[in-house]
């Protein structure tokens, strides 16, 4: 989901300026290899760490700790209203094929570069148009509201999808605790800004040209919808950093980029807040970003998706994409009378 403007000044079309659905696996990997060589980005991969243009591209450098991030088991109930008969995406795929540009733009970069990410202490603030601003410390994330497990489909705008058992709590429950004022019409979210820990925030090549901190937003009715979820875990354990530890949003009827990771701020506001991918490429990524097989991305079709299962991305089965990612019963009423082509 790279924006076009970002590649300005680079002669070739970068491999990342292309959805995985546009091209064959072979051409992706060949082009990616070439562009990585051309840019000297080889320095970013451990296997090519000798004889490189250090300084310019030695950007991951110290960010690769030897020790894996430790996750812990969580206590929760299974919410029977949000289960599925679909095959779950295996855990090893969920935690190794990620988009988290703060740690690099390749799917394996977040797992490779985020293992040393510090999540404790953490503070999540709920503020803005609320009568009772809240600050949640690390422990509160797991204690303030009873945890439940919900299995949701996650549909990335790049036309791949997963089925993931999340652990967390409803966003509405948290917002209610803060007592929104009558002026609150939208909810704005913000990811941690910490360039020392996040190589993508230090270097725009690593970070894909996104301006940081990553920000996202929902209308208040969307945020209060029963499906909107704050996840603190997956597969029964605390989140690994590559999936947005310690707390991230999950809005399953919208493209994955709305599901902002590693959140430090939730702000109730009067006006529609700016959102990162819309800032970067407004003609490609809208505020609503509802999954919609009838409205294509300007550069690829959204009619179908690769469902990631036990095999690799390119052996994944292509299945039709469902309106609102199959959650129309819960959310279609939010968009009555809205032109979904204009409000994409
Ligand atoms: N802060 C932040 N949040 C983010 C992203 C990101 O780059 N930075 N990527 C988004 C995109 S494009 C997707 S598809 C999902 C991926 O979530 P996952 O890696 O847990 O599957 O996270 C979203 N949240
Ligand atoms: Mo995505």
Cα-atom Rg, whole angstroms? Answer: 19 Å
Task: Report how far the terminal alpha carbons are from each other.
Answer: 15 Å
Output the helix-strand order. Answer: HEHHEEHEEHEHEHEEEEHEEH
Count of the separate structural domains: 1
Ligand inventory: the ligand Nc1nc2c(c(=O)[nH]1)N[C@H]1C(S)=C(S)[C@@H](COP(=O)(O)O)O[C@H]1N2, molybdenum atom
CATH topology name: Sulfite Oxidase, Chain A, domain 2
Family: Belongs to the MsrP family.
EC number: 1.8.5.-
GO molecular function, one term: molybdopterin cofactor binding
Keywords: Metal-binding, Molybdenum, Oxidoreductase, Signal
Describe the structure.
- The protein is α+β, with helices and mostly antiparallel strands and 344 residues long.
- It has one domain (6-335): Sulfite Oxidase, Chain A, domain 2 (Alpha-Beta Complex), CATH 3.90.420.10.
- Helix content is 16%, strand content 20%.
- The chain is built from nine helices and 13 strands.
- It has helices spanning 25-39, 91-94, 109-113, 138-143, 171-177, 199-202, 220-224, 276-280, 328-331, and strands spanning 77-78, 123-128, 134-137, 148-155, 160-170, 186-191, 215-219, 229-234, 237-238, 248-250, 263-269, 304-307, 317-320.
- The strands form two sheets. Strands 1, 4, 5, 8, 9, 10, 12 and 13 form an eight-stranded mixed sheet that branches. The chain has a five-stranded mixed sheet with strand order 3-2-11-6-7.
- Strand 2 and strand 3 (134-137) form a beta hairpin.
- The longest helix has 15 residues, at 25-39.
- The protein is globular, with a radius of gyration of 19 Å.
- Residues 5-58 have low confidence and may be disordered.
- The site of molybdenum atom (MO) has 7 residues, from loops.
């Amino acid at each position: 989901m790279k924006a076009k403007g970002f590649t300005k000044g680079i002669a070739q079309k970068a491999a990342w300026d292309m959805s995985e659905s546009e091209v064959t696996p072979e051409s992706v990997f060949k082009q990616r290899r070439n562009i990585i060589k051309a840019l000297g980005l080889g320095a970013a991969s451990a296997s090519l760490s000798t004889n490189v243009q250090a300084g310019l591209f030695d950007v991951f450098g110290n960010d690769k700790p030897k020790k894996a991030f430790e996750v812990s088991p969580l206590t929760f109930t299974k919410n029977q209203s949000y289960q599925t008969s679909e095959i779950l995406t295996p855990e090893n795929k969920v935690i190794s094929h990620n988009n988290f540009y703060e740690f690099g733009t390749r799917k394996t970069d977040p797992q490779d570069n985020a293992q040393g990410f510090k999540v404790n202490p953490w503070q999540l603030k709920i503020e803005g148009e609320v009568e009772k601003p809240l600050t949640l410390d690390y422990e509160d994330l797991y204690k303030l509201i009873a945890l439940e497990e919900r299995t949701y489909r996650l549909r990335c705008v790049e036309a791949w999808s997963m089925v993931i058992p999340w652990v967390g709590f409803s966003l509405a429950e948290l917002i209610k605790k803060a007592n929104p004022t009558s002026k609150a019409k939208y909810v704005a979210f913000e990811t941690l800004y910490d360039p020392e820990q996040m190589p993508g925030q230090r270097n725009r090549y690593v970070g894909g040209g996104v301006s940081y901190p990553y920000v996202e937003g929902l209308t208040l009715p969307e945020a209060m919808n029963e499906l909107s979820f704050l996840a603190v875990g997956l597969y029964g354990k605390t989140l690994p950093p590559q999936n947005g530890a310690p707390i991230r949003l999950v809005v399953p009827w919208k493209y994955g980029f709305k599901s902002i990771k590693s959140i430090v701020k939730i702000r109730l506001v009067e006006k529609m807040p700016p959102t990162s991918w819309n800032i970067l490429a407004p003609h490609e990524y809208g505020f609503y970003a509802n999954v919609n097989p009838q409205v294509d991305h300007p550069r690829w079709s959204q009619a179908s998706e690769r469902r990631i299962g036990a095999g690799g991305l390119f052996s994944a089965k292509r299945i039709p994409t469902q309106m609102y990612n199959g959650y129309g019963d819960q959310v279609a009423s939010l968009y009555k009378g809205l032109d979904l082509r204009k409000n994409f």
